[in-house]
Amino acid sequence: MCALKIDLLFGGGAELLFDKIKKRQVELPPLNKYFSDAKKTEWTIREFIVWIKDNLLREREELFIQGDSVRPGILVLVNDSDWELCGELDYQLQNNDCIMFISTLHGG
Amino acid sequence: MPVICRTGCGKKAVLKRPKTGDALCKECFYRAFETEIHYTITKGNLFKRGDSVAIGASGGKDSTVLAYVLKLLNQQYDYGLNLMLLSIDEGITGYRDDSLETVKQNRDDYEMQLKILSYKDLYGWTMDEIVAQIGRKNNCTFCGVFRRQALDRGAAMLNVKCIATGHNADDIAETVLMNVLRGDIARLKRCTAISTGSEGTIPRVKPLKYTYEKEIVMYAHYKKLIYFSTECVFAPNAYRGHARALLKDMEKIRPSCIMDIIYSGETMAVKEEVSLPTLRNCVRCKFVSSQEICKACVLLEGLNKGLPKLGIGKSSKAKRMLAEYNSKQQTLLENGKQELDNNIAINNCSSNSKSCNSGLYSNENIELKESVGNKSKCCSGKCNNLNNKENVTSSKKINSLLKQYRINEKVLNSNHTSSNDNNEVDLLLTGQEGSCSETCGKISSLHLGF
What we know:
The complex is a heterodimer.
Chain A: E1 4-11, E2 23-28, H1 31-34, H2 45-55, E3 65-66, E4 69-70, E5 74-78, E6 81-82, E7 97-103
Parallel strand pairs in A: 1-7
Antiparallel strand pairs in A: 1-2, 3-4, 5-6, 5-7
Chain B: E1 15-16, E2 23-24, H1 26-43, E3 52-56, H2 61-76, E4 82-89, H3 96-110, E5 113-118, H4 119-123, H5 127-134, H6 139-158, E6 162-164, H7 169-182, H8 185-190, E7 195-196, E8 204-205, H9 213-222, H10 238-253, H11 257-267, E9 280-281, E10 288-289, H12 295-304, H13 315-347, H14 349-357, H15 363-374, H16 388-415, H17 418-440, H18 443-449
Parallel strand pairs in B: 3-4, 3-6, 4-5, 6-8
Antiparallel strand pairs in B: 1-2, 7-8, 9-10
């Protein structure tokens, strides 16, 4: 399986934790190449969040991650739809998917 | 297998509503979102036809969505409202200056009049300057108290019937929780009210009271509304932060908990024997207060006296601090008078002020004038008894006065004869003091009045 291309977007202040970059494109290797103990090649958002933490998260990890998910108050959109409609952490990433994280916790 | 919209419209659902659990498509979500706010407005009788309404605008998601939706509903349902935007500039570099740009964008996009009031103009202090005095621990107290009053002042200037704020359901639930955690029964009782304000005050209304934060953010996202989302550069309010985190954790497990907490707050009855503070008017600034002197005036007094912690904590503590300060001040006053007399004798002040009149005043003259005017500031820094902070503050103030003075002088010089100059300049100086007493109570009486 070749690399997975994902459009990754941050908004609502979440971008402040990621070098203030709102939009980027990332490439994911097969899952078992990244996590050597993984038994499958497909990525779900669960592993993608770990990958983001490892590769992109610059500061104050606790403002983005809580347990094995995002911190409550951060909305996740899969191809511009609420991730609550598509399995949340268990959603399996597809090539060219667009994943967006929007913080609701900033300002007001 | 995409989820289909719950309404049966046949379109693909894009979000799950936290309040109801329904999956809706974009259009049906917009309609549900807007209709609910319309229902909240009509059921709560928030507005009357012909009212002028100020929208408290910060540039953040809530007030941006509020402005957008109010404009939309005003047209759709013909409320007949005159909507305008009211913003408060706290003077926080790197935060409010940026967010005000967003508010100006709102003004252009929604074609509403915008009024911006600054802490600097109202109180003589920016939040940056306040934080330099108080540090980062209690600064949110100042900001909150001042903003509350600033909105009232702005609304009075705009001559509006009410102020609409962007408080959403999550905010209200959080406040209920906070007031429970603090045992603040008076606030607990009124924090869920959709419209607040006793007679003599401009009511605040919260059209987004039952609107979830998640939906506000999703609405803004799908509608591509531009809003500002940077955290305040000063330390966030830690206690509120915990309440917020707790609430978000619970919301994740049971989204209806937000509505349930609001419902609890609304229906909770306070025992009759619990004594609640009665609202009255502050004797200084005449704004509504539960004390003889309102919190804003106490805080401001503290800042101006170099006792920035004055309004923090119990009022008994404030009284003690003031008693100490006043006795010190009394001594200073006497020493100061003495010194002042000496100074006048030495410097021959009367001839100096004549040279003042011809436009050739120096820093020293201004300082002298200032000390004569305020009496408490004795000998413009020559007196050793004066505490350092007071010195710094007063010279800062003098410098700023001086700056203004000089600028004004140039303008005046070019337009008037030199004899006119005098009067004008003097008037300007008194005018400056006068405007200060208007905003912060009567400065001259503050020294003795407390």
